[in-house]
Amino acid sequence: MQSNNLSSILETIRDSKFLSLISQSAIQYQDNIIAKSLPNPPASCYISLIYRSDRYMTPLIQHFVSLVYKV
User: What pTM was estimated for this model as a whole?
Assistant: First the structure.
């Protein structure tokens, strides 16, 4: 399953017998989801900023992108 809506992912996990890999911060306040840590988790994770070059970026989004690049 692929979704860009965290609440729909959590609902699917909650209502099924499936397993999922998901960020601990996404489920920290979910009392009815059992989380187990990976035995050898990656040292770091990478997040990508992806956007279409043929779309107009508002000044607010341009500012956000510049902030992300500074981190």
Answer: 0.43
